[in-house]
Amino acid sequence: MQSELRRQFLQELLSKDLEKIASIWLLDRIPFLFQEDRGLYIDWKFALAKKLGIDCASILIVGSSCTGISFNPYKNYKPFDNTSDIDVAIVSDYYFNEAWRALRNLGSRRHSLPPREKQSIEDHVQRHIYWGTIASEHILPLFPFGSKWQRALSEMSSVIPTMGRQIKLRIYKDFESLRSYHINNLKSLRDNALS
Prior knowledge:
Layout: H1 2-15, H2 18-27, H3 38-52, E1 59-62, H4 64-67, E2 86-91, H5 93-104, H6 115-128, E3 133-135, H7 146-156, E4 167-172, H8 175-194
Parallel strand pairs: 2-4
Antiparallel strand pairs: 1-2, 3-4
């Protein structure tokens, strides 16, 4: 099935508008993980939203758990499987600004962080913030809301269909940032496919 998904995606990637591909494959669909069960997807989003204290409309599942295959150019369209994590996009100007403020205010404390956290912060300075995103995977504890959100992710890792899976969050400033970030990634995939 995933080989068919890969073939279909590559065909569309080379023939359709990137904005449409972003909508069709990532932003306007029931994620692959939920096997076309819209009710289960909505229930899952409502449960996570309640735990995070946000509106469920601002939650989208992206990545291979959404598409069925990885769009990471280094993973060669790897199929979603039992080891795959769950990538969740949170669209919130409020939480984006809170997170960015926390990162900016680290000051000299930044130098005493573990190497992975330091690198993550550098990645934000170099590229993530430009795209209006905060990749919270390694730095969630640094945010004022971090411990609450970590508990929520841990709890959601014990419910179907995300049971036993790592859940990662990216916070986007707005929907335009979310779309632009993914369109840029799709452009890179198209360039790689053409070369």
